[in-house]
Amino acid sequence: MRDLALTLFVLMMLPVAVARPFIGLMLWAWIGYMNPHRLTWSFAYNFRFNLLIALATIIGILFSSRVKIRIPWTLPILFMALFAVWTIFTSQFAFRPTAALELLDRFIKIQIMIFATIILTQTRRQIISIVMVIAFSVGFFGLKGGLFTIMSGGNYRVMGPALSFFEDNNAFALAQMVNAPLFVFFMRNTRSYLIKIFMLLMIVFSLAAILGSYSRGGFIGLSVVLLIFWMKSRQKIMTGVLVVAIVTSSYFFMPTKWLNRMHDVIGSSLETMRMMEEEETNLNNEKNLTIFKKGAIEQDLTDQMMETFSSAPNIIQDKSMAGRLHAWRVALLIVEDRPILGGGLGAFEQQTFDKYTPGVMKHAAHSIYFEVLGEQGYVGFILWLCMHISVLYTIIRLNRRTRYVPELHWVRDLSGMIWVGLFGYYSAGAFLGMAYFDLPYHLIAIVAILKAYTDTALQKRLAEAPAGKSAQPMRSQPKWRSR
Hints:
Blueprint: H1 2-19, H2 21-34, H3 49-63, H4 75-91, H5 97-120, H6 124-151, H7 169-188, H8 193-212, H9 216-232, H10 236-253, H11 256-284, H12 286-293, H13 297-311, H14 320-337, H15 350-356, H16 368-402, H17 409-428, H18 438-464
């Protein structure tokens, strides 16, 4: 019944997506993030609904007289486009061309719809609508996972929707962490106490779901998010009390096995740093480097590292830390061998490990930074870094320009919460390979849209200002100082 209902709904909405592409855009985001077809059991489970919706939306963009194809080429969008083009280029020279092209197909489809979002989303209502669809689509699993964590006493691990970008528990924690600050934006910008309470519950359940994922990277990222949120809060005492309450309640609520797993984070991280420094020293030694090039030291290093892992009390329960070390080392060796092109998409496979570290089983990149560095080389890594640095700079500029403009305070709130979410992505992503996850790219696009909206609003405000008034209304005095 679910399969039939979902299929009929999507098919009925396709003509609407052609006639009104923005509705198709929201439908695409809903299917992409909430994955409702994964909640079915029959023919709809693997049906490619998003492809049909994307095609209908693009047809609507190309043939609708109401849509003007204009892209605000801000720095984040420029670097995003350059990174996508560079990814296409490196995929032609990838270690595994067939697999790279399959991954590239998915990535480019996401980028096309991200740029469709930039083209179609212009008004305040449209911006808030697309953010709401994203927030509640991802937040649905936060609500579901948070309820499950609370009802089970945190004794079971929470996972994301099957065959999605955030199916894995670590990826699920990252997605909820990036998404949860959006509910703070909605809570701040409504007058309804019922909506405020509902948004607060969504935040609480999302945080509970992050804890229930048993993700240590998620735990680190959540710590960073709470710290950044407290720093950006307007009421630091109340927010500080709330943060302390969250930390304290999680410590007393979660079971012992969760506490033991989180306690290993610091010890494992310190031991990892020490081992990486030792290995770097060995590789910098001329004699060892010569032996390494001959292919004799890899197995020796592997044996030494595994022996250390077996004896280290902080790591004995987490052998995945060894996998992270090996994956990061492989990423560095790839760019040493191919500094410009990298290994291409899908480089972290067994044949790559056999080439650079014989005898070591393959591991995922386990880091957005090493993933981009190893697969896209230094050029792609710099473009990717510039994209993220420029979006943070754009948010800072937005906050300054809208500080004294009451009708644009919602822009300041939304961009500020995106800032918080992105820092969660940067911190948790240091231990998780999610460099091509569509949510951060969507948020970057929304920041660019907010900038274009703010530019237009401030120009209009300036044009409508009475003669003799200040030429820079965005720097006007706050209301409580005016006379």
